[in-house]
Specification:
heterodimer, A: mainly alpha, MetI-like fold, 2 domains, 14 helices, 1% strand, B: 379 residues, alpha+beta, 59% helix
Chain lengths: 329, 379
């Protein structure tokens, strides 16, 4: 177990490292660099254009003459040791402050979507496997396919339309008006929970469809195995039999889905948040990318992916705890 | 051949039925086809997908208008329904439009005018076009008999362009971006997965770790980031290819995994060993013996991953980070729906969303049926 843990941990660190490299490369892609950005901002504010000497000096101050990997090390060093992600032009402060303000809401929304997916899929998946080819099974399958076919952002658009047309609500937010900019408090958390369920369902519904299908397929495989017949022959009540043996078996792949579902949930959260203009990381990341506020964009890319990777790591550990075949591999 | 076999067998077992005999002599592709045929939904979906791609090929002919023709007189008109009976006589027609002005905003409020009748027909003469850019023509599958009459099956957009025509022209972009992306993923997947599965050992280990890392990255934020880096001054064609490259970049890993696992499980099969003993070189072994035996699986996984690409393109373009006008795709069209007011007052602007939905649904069913049929030996 310890060996497995260590190996998974090292993979996680390596993954985060590679993600940081990719992120860094991406933010270096657009033409121009930090200094040309500063100069452009100053010019747009009416300043006279700086002399070549000033530009050279600025480039030296910001270390832009260093080779790429030195720049990368400096950037990552600041993040790790000082918790500074770089200065944001748009917000006139360090990117970390914006990340801290927005990321928790993203985290809570993704996590609750995940819970939603699990809580919904488990009973439905079991039902549709046990009552194979019943009307209910067909219905669930159909709804599942439809859920898979509607991209979450389109569903968000449709929900916006319905909310406006039939309930007269112009926006689906995360907070009521009075809590929009209030500091965190118990009342604000309660308010968040009251408003969060619509975005939560929108983000989670696609995952639910996939998970129900996985669980159904797994359970169908298990239901035909001899041990089920044995248990039945021994007179175990059907419900207990189901929960005690085949469901537990079928759950294994279920838990491992945590790993691959998390990236797609985070993706879904980002785009749904942009459409609904939720106060999470999506809209900020989008605006930062559009206005090339690169340190903010990089910070969010890095933190969102790290969050995902850590989540996957936790799911792998859970799986290893549950299934001895994995930890003794 | 079948008859001969039957005769031959007939001597030994006179009561053998033709059905099981057919199964015994059928090729793998035939078995796959028979199994696929049983999946009704997949069959229907296959027909829909084929129709969609035929539309993609003959856009200019199918669409009543060019997709860019605007008639600002008919700004934001609601959709017209096609009626069949005209005063007891059979003849296709739609109602024309009339408008009143909103007393406050002075905006036009369009209503269908039951008095004006716009005759509609198939294979009508309409706007001239060049099919695939070089074959001139002016016959359209469907349209108003009189070119001047309004004909807006899905309504009109802000500057009076026909949304129905635009949805059709968008299909050409939306449905092919995914195909190009898939083709690239396919090549990368087969190459990397093949190397990984055939050579094995340390190289396999390294490749698998890299794939695991890439899979654990949330795709959308990185799609957004990469798409935002595409320079604005690039030509439409360049952007188009760049977007499909970006879609590929973060999705080829799944295919590589499928290919690898197939190679691994097949490496120890008897027929592979036999081919090796016959002196087959590696290239021939892969292309003539291994690939054909799991091609059906690959086709199924490819079909199942096209919808993801279509959704990816739509999402990127919808956010304004993917394709840009003058290219029209479903995502580009949906940009008009970003404001709640436009969806609320002009819900027909959501028509491209319906197109995305139908396409993705059909492709999912098709892929599902293909996947079930890919292993015809399993009951």
């Amino acid at each position: 177990m310890r060996k497995y843990l260590l190996r998974r941990f090292l993979t996680m660190v390596l993954t985060v490292f590679i993600i940081s490299l990719i992120t860094f490369i991406i933010i270096q892609l657009p033409p121009g660099d930090y200094v040309t950005n500063i100069i452009n901002r100053m010019l747009s504010q009416g300043a006279t254009s700086p002399s070549p000497e000033d530009v050279a000096l600025l480039r030296k101050i910001y270390g832009l003459n260093d080779p790429m990997f030195v720049q990368y090390i400096k950037w990552i060093e600041k993040i790790i040791f000082e918790g500074k992600f770089g200065y944001s032009f748009t917000y006139q402060k360090d990117a970390i402050e914006i990340i801290v303000a927005r990321l928790p809401a993203s985290f809570v929304l993704s996590l609750s979507s995940f819970m939603f997916v699990w809580i919904i899929s488990l009973p439905i998946g079991i039902y549709s496997a046990v009552k194979k080819y019943s009307v209910g099974d067909y219905f669930v399958n159909f709804v599942g396919f439809v859920g898979l076919a509607i991209p979450s952002f389109l569903l968000a658009l449709v929900c916006l339309y319905v909310a406006y047309k039939y309930f007269g609500v112009a926006a689906i937010g995360l907070f009521s008006k009075e809590f929009q900019n209030a500091p965190w408090s118990a009342a604000r958390v309660l308010d968040l929970i009251k408003h969060m369920w619509i975005p939560m369902i929108i983000v989670g519904i696609g995952g639910t469809a996939g998970l129900i299908r996985t669980l159904r397929a797994n359970l169908l495989d298990e239901l035909n195995k001899p041990y089920v017949d044995t248990a039945r022959a021994k007179g175990l009540p059907e419900a207990r039999l189901l929960w005690k043996y085949p469901v537990r078996h079928a759950l294994n792949p279920f838990i491992s889905t945590l790993g691959w579902m998390l990236p797609s949930l985070i993706s879904g959260e980002v785009i749904v948040a942009i459409v609904l203009n939720l106060p999470t990381s999506g809209p900020i990341l989008y605006n930062a990318l559009a206005s090339q506020d690169m340190y903010v964009a990089a910070g969010f890319l890095l933190m969102l992916s790290t969050l995902t990777v850590v989540g996957t790591f936790i799911s792998d550990i859970l799986l290893a705890l549950l299934d001895p075949r994995i930890r003794f591999q | 051949m079948l008859k001969m076999l039957k005769k031959k067998r007939g001597v030994v077992a006179p009561d053998i039925d033709t059905e099981s005999l057919r199964v015994e002599v059928a090729s793998q592709w035939k078995l796959t086809w028979w199994k696929f045929r049983k999946h009704k939904l997949a069959m229907v979906s296959a027909v829909i997908v084929i129709i969609l791609y035929i539309i993609v090929i003959f856009c200019e002919f199918v669409a009543p208008r060019s997709g860019f023709t605007n008639n600002s007189k008919y700004s934001l008109v609601p959709p017209q329904a096609i009626h069949l009976l005209n005063n007891g006589r059979i003849g296709l027609y739609v109602f024309g439009y009339t408008y009143t002005r909103d007393p406050v905003s002075l905006q036009r409020i369009w209503v269908l005018d039951k008095e004006t009748i716009v005759p509609v027909g198939f294979f009508v003469k309409g706007e001239p076009y060049k099919l695939w850019g070089f074959i001139p023509g002016n016959i359209h599958l469907v349209g108003a008999r009189n070119l001047e009459d309004p004909f807006f099956l899905f309504g009109g957009d802000r500057i009076g362009r026909d949304i129905f025509s635009r949805v059709i022209f968008s299909a050409r972009v939306s449905l092919t971006v995914g195909l190009i992306g898939i083709a690239l993923s396919f090549l990368l997947g087969i190459l990397v997965g093949g190397i990984s599965g055939l050579i094995g050992g340390t190289l396999d280990n390294i490749i698998q770790r890299i794939i695991e890392i890439l899979i654990s990255i949330p795709t959308l934020p990185f799609w957004l980031a990469l798409a935002a880096m595409v320079p604005i001054d690039w030509s439409p064609l360049q952007t188009y290819f760049m977007i499909s490259m970006i879609l590929t970049l973060l999705s080829w890993m799944w295919l590589a995994r499928v290919v690898r696992s197939k190679f691994l499980s097949m490496r120890n099969e008897d027929f592979v060993l036999a081919a090796q003993l016959d002196g087959c070189n590696n290239m021939r072994l892969i292309t003539h013996h291994m690939l054909p035996s799991f091609m059906s699986y690959i086709i199924a996984s490819v079909t199942l991953s096209i919808p993801g690409m279509i959704i990816g393109e739509t999402a990127l373009s919808f956010l304004g980070l993917g394709l840009r006008p003058p290219i029209i795709s479903w995502g580009v069209m949906l940009q008009d729906c970003q404001k709640i007011a436009s969806i609320a007052n002009y819900p027909w602007m959501l028509a491209p969303a319906g197109a995305v939905f139908i396409t993705v649904l059909a492709m999912n069913f098709l892929g599902d049926g293909l996947r079930d049929a890919a292993d015809p030996y399993q009951s």
